[in-house]
Amino acid sequence: MIALDVIIAKDVNEMSMTAARIMADLVRKKPNCVLGLATGSTPIPMYKELIRLHKEEGLDLSRVRSFNLDEYYPIDPTHNQSYRYFMDHHLFDHINIKKENTRVPDGRTKDIAAHCASYEAQIKEAGGIDIQILGIGSNGHIGFNEPGSAIYSRTRLVVLTERTIQDNSRFFDSMDEVPRFAITMGIGTILASRHSILLANGKYKAEAVAKLAEGPVTSQCPASALQLQEKATIIVDEEAGSKLERKDYYNHVRALMSQLQK
Ligand code: PGA
Predict the structure, then answer these.
(1) Which of 73, 173, 212, 215 has the fewest C-beta atoms under 10 angstroms from its C-beta?
(2) Quick check: 88 pLDDT over 70?
(3) 143 CA distance to ligand 1 centroid (A)?
(4) pLDDT-derived band at 2, boundaries 50, 70, 90
């Protein structure tokens, strides 16, 4: 079945637990799986649950490989707002994944084109991404694919929009410090993964979520490209799902599917 699977969780906790459970099931079934990971405030509680599953329930991530969606450019990996720093701090330092098996685009590379091509090649060599975790920007971006990004785009340098710079300025000391560029997997890179899981919570995301799931597929809302993916799951809390018109149908689908699985 090619259709977006929309899960409306009652709150952030349920959203995060649901996503962590899907990831943990994959890791147990395929210990050498390839995870596509995301930064931002949205996935933090999901990472906390993965850490708990590792520490308390013995979830073994020693053979997992990972590729992150994006990184600011230019930025040093030791900068406390770099996405490499974020991943080490929020996940990698607390589980048994091997650091050398984790990839984040290099915010210091001098040869951007060669680095982007090599990032794509490494994903391919690893056998492709099994699960790609995504957040969504208030402007509908996924990774740093801003509105207008081609649906077949691949890893490349992008210029951030004013809105993204504004949204992300809360993490920096001043607006001036927010990098104006990023290296991001393309929408085509994301669609090539076997399963995308997009998470969103809060009222601020409601409009972007409605456009992604129920609007037309358009480069003006990069996340809407997920409608073209064979397997994509959207997990939102009630606030982020509040502008979805077909909410009742999504709940109905879930209720009937869970009966079928019993
Ligand atoms: P956020 O960012 O999780 O911090 O809201 C999401 C995104 O911009 O992709």
Answers:
(1) 173
(2) yes
(3) 9
(4) low
